[in-house]
Write a structure and sequence with these properties.
The chain is an all-alpha fold. The protein has helices at 11-21, 35-43, 55-67, 79-83, 87-93, 95-100, 102-110, 121-130, 138-144, 149-152, 155-166, 174-200, 213-221, 233-237, 246-252, 258-261, 272-277, 281-290, 297-309, 315-330; strands at 2-3, 29-30, 72-74, 205-207. The chain contains 20 helices and four strands. The strands form two sheets. It has a two-stranded parallel sheet. A two-stranded parallel ribbon has the order 3-4. Helix 5 (87-93) runs antiparallel to helix 12 (174-200).
């Protein structure tokens, strides 16, 4: 995928990696102006709303695969959840330290103008300090989710779900507990659902080697210190703040070029933040009305205004509402539902 927004685009790096490994390389473009039309087409194929913007590039990728005549592909899904690829995994270990300086950090971040681009370090820091005083698993849910539970009156509705999902790792290291929760919820109900819907809509089968039960069992036996750690001196000099999937990168060293292994983690998201920032408020008003049963309209209008003025990066909040709005439209005027539903 070549996402035509500078802070999102990994096209040149993908091209270099393909050249080093010796694979045939083809780029598929995605630009912010495509988002509205593409989302309408994608959500029409979903039996439930899924507010993960990476559904859009995944859809385009599967469309290109199908057009090429390929019927079965391999994916890397599961590697992040098994081998600690997300920065949140390390963040749980640093919570006591982060709590000490959270007030000063939030004040400093509040003075910085938000950049509507990729997932910047500023954006990650704001999300981090937003929930650092929460207990697990609510801290993790806030980091991985869109809205704060209090904003939707949903804490009580989610308490049982999170408690059940986290139960199996209740005595583990905080980072291991985060991996367990990601495997139970984010991977099972998000990542795999996204890939399944996008691939099946195009008649493509996706297989995930990392989810072979033998790999999963091996990963479970590997200590968390072999998966995640603080950056070394060289990494810090380059601005690195996180070392994830350590054992996996070591194993891949003979096969994958060093410049690829050492690149910071990038998500597969679409540039929905910049796109939402350029929409006229009147164009988003139908969304405000469509989700009023879940999000108070006045609160959502404030979120839109802050995002478009560059005062905050509300891409996740707004995209979740846009997803629900367009999905309901695709379901022939589906009636509003409650949080409990």
């Amino acid at each position: 995928m070549s996402i035509r927004t500078p802070t999102f685009d990994e096209g040149p790096h993908a091209r270099s990696a393909a050249a080093a490994i010796g694979t045939f390389h083809q780029q598929i473009p995605l630009e912010a102006p495509h988002i509205e039309a593409l989302s309408a087409r994608v959500f029409a194929h979903m039996d439930e709303p899924l507010a993960d913007s990476s559904l859009l590039p995944t859809w385009l990728l599967m469309d290109a695969v199908a057009r090429s005549g390929i019927k079965c592909v391999l994916s890397g899904d599961g590697a992040d959840e098994l081998f600690a690829g997300y920065p949140t995994t390390l963040a749980h270990r640093l919570v006591p330290l982060l709590r000490v300086g959270s007030s000063a950090a939030r004040r400093m971040l509040s003075r910085r103008r938000v950049q509507q681009g990729g997932v910047s370090k500023d954006y990650m820091a704001r999300r981090l300090f937003e929930a650092v005083h929460e207990d697990f698993p609510w801290r993790h849910q806030t980091w991985m989710g869109a809205w704060l539970p209090e904003e939707l009156g949903a804490r009580q509705a989610l308490d049982g779900l999170l408690a059940d999902a986290a139960y199996g790792a209740r005595d583990a290291d905080p980072a291991s507990r985060a991996l367990h929760l990601d495997q139970r919820l984010y991977l099972a109900d998000g990542v795999l659902v996204k890939v399944d819907r996008a691939s099946m809509a195009h008649g493509v089968e996706v297989r995930s080697p990392f989810l072979d039960h033998r790999v999963v069992e091996l990963a479970a036996d590997i200590g968390i210190d072999h998966k995640v750690g603080l950056p070394g001196a060289r990494s810090l000099a380059r601005g690195g703040v996180f070392r994830g999937k350590r054992v996996l990168k070591t194993a891949a060293a003979p096969l994958v070029p060093e410049f690829t292994r050492r690149r910071p983690k990038k998500g597969f998201g679409a540039p929905v933040g910049p796109w939402l920032a350029t929409q006229a408020p009147s164009a988003l008003e139908p969304m405000v009305e469509a989700v009023a049963d879940l999000v108070p309209p006045d609160r959502l209008r404030v979120v839109i205004r802050e995002h478009q003025m560059g005062l905050a990066d509300h891409r996740r909040r707004l995209w979740s509402c846009w997803t629900l709005h367009r999905w309901r439209e695709s379901e022939w005027g589906r009636a509003p539902c409650s949080v409990d539903d």
